[in-house]
């Protein structure tokens, strides 16, 4: 098991940065081990050669300069520790499509540096499952972003089994998520934003009270 590194509350900013760096190296070690088992290599790509995902899992303001400022500073000081995942683009030869690591990609673009990623041949279904699994593992998506992610997949024609796998949950929960996202006007959802402090119960209550004109 990897050594758990925790910076004490009284640590100086320098020590906190060191601890954060060690944690990132642990993440890199774990991910590198997994990728090596899968026979993959990490390569560096021009961010301009990487196309966006067809299914968005976050609201667009998640990639604003203020939202990725910490990632930008981390990559400026230590480089990109954890690689992303891309797949070859079927529509544009020589380009790739991001599967996960969109905020790291946004930071790489802002810094004007190459983006480190593993390249894997994936079907549309496999790509969206990997995309969702990575977010679930990091617990990054808010509840309403998960609802929007589920709805976007349904609208794109993905089977319910694929949506369940991408969110690591069952069909009944996915149905509830889709109901929440489809019950509220999309402009209202994005105006409210990710709202990470607001959970399932309050969103379900709001969706029952909200009526789309």
Give an overview of the whole structure.
This protein is an alpha/beta fold and 213 residues long. The protein is 52% helix and 10% strand. It contains nine helices and five strands. It has helices at 13-37, 69-78, 102-111, 124-138, 143-155, 160-167, 171-183, 186-192, 200-209; strands at residues 42-45, 50-51, 84-88, 96-100, 115-119. Strands 1-5-3-4-2 form a five-stranded mixed beta sheet. The longest helix is centred in the N-terminal third of the chain and has 25 residues, at 13-37. The radius of gyration is 18 Å and the shape is globular. Mean pLDDT is 78; it is low at 1-11 and 24-29.
Instruction: Give the termini distance in whole angstroms.
Output: 54 Å
Mean pLDDT level:
78
Percent strand: 5-15%
Shape: globular
The number of helical elements comes to: 9
- Let me know the number of strands: 5
Roughly what percent helix? 40-55%
Unreliable spans: 1-11, 24-29
Order of strands, widest sheet: 1-5-3-4-2
Structural class: alpha/beta
Q: Largest sheet at a glance?
A: 5 strands, mixed
Radius of gyration from the alpha-carbon trace, in angstroms: 18 Å
Note the run of SSEs as H and E.
HEEHEEHEHHHHHH
Summarize the structure.
This protein is an alpha/beta fold. It has 9 helices and 5 strands; from the N terminus they run H-E-E-H-E-E-H-E-H-H-H-H-H-H.
Task: Jot down its keywords.
213 residues, 9 helices, single chain, disordered N terminus, alpha/beta
């Amino acid at each position: 098991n990897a050594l758990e590194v925790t910076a004490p509350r009284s640590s100086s900013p320098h020590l906190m940065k060191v601890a954060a760096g060690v944690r990132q190296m642990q993440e890199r070690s774990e991910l590198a081990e997994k990728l090596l088992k899968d026979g993959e290599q990490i390569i560096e790509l021009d961010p301009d050669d990487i196309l966006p995902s067809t299914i968005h899992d976050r609201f667009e303001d998640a990639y604003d300069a203020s939202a990725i400022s910490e990632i930008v500073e981390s990559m400026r000081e230590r480089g990109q520790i954890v690689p992303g995942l891309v797949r070859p683009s079927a529509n544009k030869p020589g380009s790739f499509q991001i599967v996960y690591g969109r905020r790291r990609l946004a930071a790489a673009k802002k810094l004007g540096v190459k983006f480190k990623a593993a390249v894997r041949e994936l079907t549309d279904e496999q790509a969206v499952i990997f995309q969702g699994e990575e977010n679930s593992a990091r617990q990054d998506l808010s509840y309403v972003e998960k609802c929007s992610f589920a709805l976007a997949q349904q609208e794109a024609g993905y089977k319910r089994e694929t949506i369940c796998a991408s969110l690591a949950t069952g069909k009944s929960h996915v149905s509830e998520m889709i109901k929440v996202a489809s019950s509220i006007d999309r402009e209202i959802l994005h105006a409210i934003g990710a709202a990470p402090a607001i959970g399932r119960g309050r969103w379900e209550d709001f969706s029952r009270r909200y009526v789309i004109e």
